[in-house]
Design goal:
Blueprint (H helix, E strand, L loop, with lengths): L9 H5 L14 H24 L2 H27 L5 H20 L13 H23 L4 H28 L1 H22 L11 H27 L6 H22 L3 H10 L2 H35 L9 H24 L6 H12 L1 H6 L2 H33 L1
Helix pairs in contact: 2-3, 2-4, 2-8, 2-11, 3-5, 3-7, 3-11, 4-5, 5-6, 6-7, 8-9, 8-10, 8-11, 9-11, 9-15, 10-11, 11-12, 11-15, 12-13, 12-15, 13-15
Length: 407
């Protein structure tokens, strides 16, 4: 006798669950698909830095990166609350993907509108607002009967997001030099008051540490992908030669060392730190370590990618590298090293003094990098990163040997 078949509940099929499947839920393929938009966006940010070739241009690009980051982080929290590949969440995130891509397209003229077409600064501001409104709507829906979460979502948007988005629109309409500072203030406002409104964890929920750590690890991979793309951009129009091949080898080595510095040293500590905590303590840890600290990690990679692109563009030259490229390369890797050091410390690792020392050495080396040829600047940065990881590895082996001997 055949068992009786039951028809699925249409509403249940269309609506996402209020929470993920459990502590071990993983990143969905649709979230990976969503992130592909940011591959192009990161490239556009680097291009804006390279085109302006000034400290102000770098600041402007970092502000845009901050807006992109804040949009991405909003959906990382949403994806931990409910599966991203189902029903209304998938539909909403598709709309957000379109809007984020529009922002990315407008990045080259975000501060200097080109003739013809729409007014790009306003397009960026309105698309940003649209992405955040979609996020808020989805979050309220998936909160279900969790009144504390719903209040937290709405309260944060009223206090942090709406004033920030309004300032972005005002800055876009004013334009000129004031736009940069208004947009910077808007980002700082959202960044600050989101933090304040979630003190003690607020009403936020974090269901799966595995999903959370994997999600942020993947965005680091995408940023590192930009450092690889930058290598090719710097020499794409040049005939292949020995200096180019050597420069490619050194630049890819730098990217691999950056990968090792995160994924083999501090990323596991971050995931374990999440798993050891529950409730509000887990939310606070996720907020501080990932939503906030990872902005510095990703920003450092993007800035270093600009330095690599500049170095590869002059890899065959014997002239001094120059202050712009040296500052981007040295400061970018220094910020990355320092941010991963702080990340590891908050995740309960011993104070990473070697990594902090390497960050200081990289920052202090910028004047020297500017005076040397681009090839030698790449060599020095690669050598400092390699030395940092070798010393860290030796110290860890020594500690493990001491523990074994004591036992």
């Amino acid at each position: 006798m055949q068992p009786e078949r039951t028809e699925p509940n249409g509403d249940a099929e269309r609506m996402p669950r209020a929470a993920r499947g459990g502590e071990s839920a993983r990143v969905t393929t649709f979230e990976l698909f969503f992130d592909l938009v940011y591959v192009f966006a990161f490239t556009q940010v680097s291009g804006l830095m390279a085109e302006t070739h000034s400290a102000l241009g770098v600041l402007q690009a970092l502000v845009v990166l901050g807006l992109l980051w804040w949009m991405w982080c909003s959906y990382s929290w949403l994806g931990n609350q409910a599966p991203a590949d189902r029903g209304v969440v998938q539909a909403g995130m598709t709309l957000a993907m379109i809007a984020v891509f529009v922002v990315a397209l407008a990045i080259p003229e975000a501060y200097d509108d080109l003739p013809g077409g729409w007014y790009a600064p306003l397009v960026v501001a309105l698309a940003y607002l649209f992405v955040r409104i979609v996020h808020t709507t989805l979050y309220v829906i998936v909160a279900g009967d969790d009144n504390a979460l719903r209040r937290q979502v709405l309260g944060t948007q009223l206090v942090a997001m709406l004033p920030s988005a309004t300032a972005l629109i005002v800055g876009a309409l004013i334009g000129g030099a004031a736009q940069t500072w208004i947009w910077l203030a808007a980002f700082v406002w959202d960044f600050t008051f989101t933090y304040v409104s979630s003190r003690g964890g607020g009403g936020w929920r974090l269901h799966s540490p595995v999903h959370w750590a994997e999600r942020y690890g993947l965005i680091v991979i995408l940023a590192l992908g930009e450092s690889i793309v930058a290598i090719g951009v710097g020499v794409a129009q040049e005939p292949i030669s020995g200096p180019i091949v050597l420069g490619v080898a050194i630049s890819i080595t730098i990217s691999v060392l950056l990968w090792r510095a995160y994924f083999t040293r501090v990323a596991p500590a971050g995931e374990h730190g999440l798993q050891r905590r529950t409730g509000g303590a887990r939310v606070v840890f996720a907020r501080d370590e990932y939503t906030y600290m990872h902005f510095a990690i990703v920003g450092g990679i993007i800035l270093a990618a600009l330095g690599v692109e500049e170095a590869m563009a002059h890899v065959s030259d014997a002239e001094p590298f120059g202050s712009f490229g040296a500052s981007a390369l040295g400061a970018g890797v220094a910020v990355y090293a320092a941010a991963t050091a702080v990340f590891g410390r908050i995740a309960d690792l011993p104070w990473p003094l070697v990594r902090l020392g390497a960050a200081l050495a990289l920052a202090a080396s910028i004047p020297l990098l500017a005076l040397l040829a681009a090839m030698w600047a790449l060599v020095i940065v690669a050598a400092l990163l390699a030395a940092m990881l070798l010393v860290e590895g030796a110290l860890q082996q020594s500690k493990r040997a001491e523990v074994t001997t004591t036992a």
